[in-house]
Amino acid sequence: MGFIVRSSFLALLFSSVVHVAVAVPAHGKIQRNSPSDDDASILRQWQRELVKRVPNAADDPNWAEHLPCDLSNVVMPQAPVPLPPPSPGSVLAHIVVGRGTQNYTCSEDSAEIIPVANGAIATLYNATCVAANFPELLSLMPKVALQFPPPEPDMEKEKRMPANILYSGHHYFTDSTTPIFDLNTEGYPLGVVAAKKLNGTDAPVGAPKGPAGMGAGSVPWLLLGAKDSTSTPWKEIYRLVTAGGMPPKNCAGQPSVMEVPYSAQYWLYR
Ligand SMILES: *[C@@H]1O[C@H](CO)[C@@H](O)[C@H](O)[C@H]1NC(C)=O
Ligand SMILES: *[C@@H]1O[C@H](CO)[C@@H](O)[C@H](O)[C@H]1NC(C)=O
Ligand SMILES: *[C@@H]1O[C@H](CO)[C@@H](O)[C@H](O)[C@H]1NC(C)=O
Known about the structure:
Largest sheet: 8 strands, antiparallel, barrel
Radius of gyration: 18 Å
Strand order of the largest sheet: 1-2-3-4-5-6-7-8
Strand content: 25-35%
Distance between the termini: 36 Å
Order of helices and strands: HHHEEHHEEEEEE
Number of strands: 8
Bound molecules: 2-acetamido-2-deoxy-beta-D-glucopyranose
C-alpha cells in the first residue's frame, strides 16, 4: 500500500484504518500519530460500511466514483456562532479537504508583537462523494489529515498514480488578502476562484490544537466570496471544521517566518 499512502489522502485514511493502532512511519521524518480510540472506532465503522457498499473499495482508489454523489441532502456543519448562510440561488457543488500550512511572520522576537498572517498554501482533495455518503467520515478528515505530513509538492502531479483522481487542486495566496482556489485537475476542470474574506467565526471549543495535540489551536471558520463573480462560476467558499493553523500568541522566541500545519474542509457554492 506504500505508493498509495504517498499519493492519496483518502488512501491515508484507509491505511490508518487498517493499521489503526500502529504508528506507521510516513515518508520523510514525521511520524503520524494514531487517531484517538473514538476516532479509530468511527474510522472502523466507516470502513465496514464502505466495504458493504463497495466490496473492492480497499483495492480501488476510485471507489467513491461508484457511489451516488448527490449533495442535495448534506448538512453544513455550524460553528457555535454560525456564519451567514449562502446567498440566495447559490448551490453547493463541490467539497474538498485541504491540507497544508498557514504562514505567519514576526517582525521581531518580542512578547509585545503578535504574529501577522501571511497567506497559506494547501493541497486540496475531492471529498464530494465522501460528504454525500459518509458525512461522519468527512467530519473526521481534517483532524486525521493533520496527523500526516503535508503532501510533497510534486507528488500529486504524478498522474499515473491511480489515487490521484482524488487530488482536486491547490489553495494559495496572491497577496495577504487574496486566497486563490485552483480547482483545475485532469478529471475535473472546475475552474479557479480568487476570493476575499466576508465573515469569520471561532472554531468550536475542543477543535484540534495541532499535530499530536500540540499547537495553538484551530483557525477560525470563514465565509469567503468571489472577488469578481464574472470571472468564475464559484460564488461562495466556506472554510469549516478547521484543524490546527493558529499562530503562537506572540512573537517571543519565534522565527521571523512560521508555517503552522493545518487542515480544513472547504465547501464551494456556485
Ligand atoms: C458575520 O455574520 C454574522 C452572522 O450572520 C453577523 O451577525 C455579523 O455581523 C457578520 N460579521 C461581519 C463582519 O460581517
Ligand atoms: C469530485 O468532484 C466532482 C465535483 O464535485 C464530483 O462530481 C465527483 O464525484 C467527485 N469525486 C469524488 C471521488 O469525490
Ligand atoms: C508559505 O510557506 C510555504 C512553504 O515554505 C511557501 O512555499 C509559501 O510560498 C508560503 N506562502 C506564503 C503565502 O507566503
